[in-house]
Amino acid sequence: MTFSKPLRIASMIEDRFLVRLQQLMADGQRRILGLAGAPGAGKSTLAQAILEALPGRAVVVPMDGFHLANVELARLGRASRKGAEDTFDSAGYVALLARLRAQRRDEMIYAPTFRREIEEPVAGAIPVMPDVPLVITEGNYLLLQHGHWKAVRPLLDEAWYVDIDPELRKQRLVARHVEFGRDEDAARRWVQQTDEVNAALIDSTRANADLVYHWPS
Known about the structure:
Pfam families: AAA_33. This is Fructose transporter. The chain is an alpha/beta fold. The protein has one domain (about 10-210): Rossmann fold, CATH 3.40.50.300. It contains 6 helices and 7 strands; from the N terminus they run αβαβααββββααβ. It has helices at about 15-25, 45-55, 70-75, 90-100, 165-180, 185-205; strands spanning about 30-35, 60, 110-115, 120-130, 135-140, 160-165, 210-215. Strands 2-5-1-6-7 form a 5-stranded parallel β-sheet. Strands 3-4 form a two-stranded antiparallel ribbon. The longest helix is centred in the last third of the chain and has 20 residues, at about 185-205. The two termini are about 30 Å apart. The model is unreliable at about 1-5 (pLDDT under 50).
């Protein structure tokens, strides 16, 4: 198997990580790579880089597709904590990963995604072909060891913890929230009161990863 880095994002991955992926996929069987990390750590960017480095051989299935809908978060009184571990359908996420591991050659599986422009999950948005050897799943809580989340790690063939300078990560988060509709003061409050609370919990799970992927500052 050969790897190419034809696009700008793909060129960001060090060769040693591509070699590790080559070893993971060497037997041609379905493999699932989990990318965990705090909000703003660059999980989606890394997933996209791997996708571009493996044209036609990988698909990204984000955990964020299992966000509870805004109306349900409001009913539960959790809208102000959107992004916390109990604002996702964790059991549904585990069930999808189990299906992806056991996908039959004659079966198409559809995964949900999350649209930031509407702040809602969208069902059936990501087709997973049965012959795609690598499923990349990325999200905050892949390495938690309680609730339904504890069933995620055994379903991953390999897990990477994605890390970056914390100040840069917070700057990215503020910019993201501003881009999608919050004013800067509201964005900073959300980062401090919600994202950083979640980040502390997520950081406590890094020992459950096979390796830590550090983005350069």
